[in-house]
């Protein structure tokens, strides 16, 4: 069940890229980014109210809001701009590197300890991801995020009609094999 939750979370994140590519001709890059984050902020605010965390906003201060404008805000703006100028398949494959690049860049640039904390996305992928996080080791969990590339490629091909090249298929096969390999070698130990 945790593996299924992670596959569904990856599908949700991959679908975001495909949806952005589908509407890029009708809306400006900035409009897509602003609407996307207004919806996300609304969902998070509703969750904060439900969970009783609204009073903590003052204690937290403005620094996290400024950081949010940079990442995921500015990063998303560049993502949508990139999708406007390339194929959804290329964007999906590039996004598959996020679980590897983010901790590495955090360590190089910010001198942070290397951690796998991927809590970006909408409410559904967030909860699916955390369900998987509860039941699988972190190293195994991070592999499932790499499925965004193959799923994004499949969605781009089926929904947008984007052709899939031989190189795309080879890259997809390598990613899927890499994600499946730990399952082939035996069951994962649950987190305690």
List the helices and strands and how they pair.
Elements: H1 2-23, H2 29-51, H3 56-60, H4 63-84, H5 88-95, H6 98-110, H7 123-135, H8 138-145, H9 148-160, H10 166-184
Protein architecture, described:
The chain is an all-alpha fold and 192 residues long. It has one domain (2-184). The protein is 76% helix and 0% strand. It contains 10 helices and no strands. Helix 5 (88-95) packs antiparallel against helix 9. The longest helix has 23 residues, at 29-51. The protein is globular, with a radius of gyration of 17 Å.
Q: Oligomer, anyone?
A: single chain
Cα distance spanning the termini: 17 Å
- By DSSP, the count of extended strands is 0
Report low-confidence residues grouped into runs of 5 or more.
115-122
pLDDT averaged over residues: 70
Strand percentage: under 5%
Shape: globular
Count of separate DSSP helical elements = 10
